[in-house]
Amino acid sequence: MEGHPVRVMLKYVWTAAPALVALLLLVPASSVYYTATGGEGCAGCHEIRASYDLWKQSTHRSVSCAACHGDSFTSGPSFHMANARRLAKHTEGDVPEQVQLKGLDVVRMMERCKSCHRQEFADWQAGPHGSAFSKIFLDEKHNRQRLLMDDCLRCHGSYFDGGIRQLVTPIDTRGPWQFTDATWTNQPAIPCLTCHEMHRRGEPLRKPSQARPRPAAREEIQRPSLALFDRREQMHVAAIDLPLPAMRDQDRPVRMSPDTRQALCYQCHAPLATRQVGSGDDRTGIGVHEGISCLGCHEKHGETTRASCATCHPRLSNCGLDVEKMDTTFASVGSKHNIHFVKCADCHTKGVPKKRV
Fold first, then answer.
1. pTM
2. Residues 6+ positions from 114 with CB-CB distance below 8 Å
3. Are the beta carbons of 73 and 64 closer than 8 angstroms?
4. Nearest-CA neighbor of 265 among 293, 225, 230?
5. What beta strand segments (E) does 164-204 contain?
6. Structure confidence by residue, pLDDT tens digits, 13-71
7. Which of 132, 151, 166, 226 could form a disulfide with 239 if both were Cys (CB 3.0 to 4.6 A apart)?
8. Which conformational region is residue 232 in: left (phi greater than 0), alpha (psi within -120 to 50 degrees), or beta?
9. Residue 237 belongs to what H/E stretch?
10. Residue 42 neighbours by CB under 8 Å, 6+ apart
């Protein structure tokens, strides 16, 4: 019988077969096309031409688009669903003037950063900048003392798609607090792209030769990718274009290190408008450490400082004491002598002894 269930099912299978075959052939074919064209195929969409042109001049130009952004073989249904939504918008004529990575897109890209930058990723993950959203925004002690606001996202969540009310509820100092979308609970609040712009112009890194030149004052200390992502402008600002503040200790101008990398640190660890040392979130060194760069003591990705004293100090100070055991916050977080601001006179209240010969 023509209406038999088996016959009907076979009819639908044969009808759908050409579409299924075309789909199966399209997936590998699209990946081969985009790989073979070296990214030029990706740039066929006019709204990413600018990004493509930047990539062609960047330090990552030898890395394919798919290596960072994924392709047809990328695992994870959310990746393909997001692409399907973008395709639907394109067919409706809703084409963005500029492509912007969404918050979860940035998180997914970090796994690809890790595939090449394993040590840097491990250091970042183990340090304070690797903290999750839950550690920052569900901190009861902090939330009872200070009201959460949109400006918190400037440093802690610059890629989050929305304001503070779309992230945490309630917005008060009573709590209890929870995320409006639990997806963000364990996501990194300060991902790699907060401080690095992948398409920044520069030369690819090369394997150093065996006979490396002796380090000099003019040696490069920063990579071109160093840049702050400004969530208000939705763009990166290169570290070399960020200003270093003119800090003051009361009425006295503070001597600042010329290390331009610090300008990136100051965007979040900033003083109040008075530019007084120690105000706001500032940690500008004065006293015995005045004029030393943040990165003179803090490692780049992990921010660890445990080996920093030995970089400049002999085991014993001019006083004959082990500097790592002196009464400072380096030895104990409970010390009243903050390592950033400590002066010789803080301990030598009756006068600083002369240097031993």
1. 0.79
2. 121
3. no
4. 293
5. 168-169, 178-179
6. 566 656 555 444 445 545 554 555 566 777 776 678 888 888 888 989 888 888 888 87
7. 226
8. alpha
9. strand 235-238
10. 34, 48, 52, 65
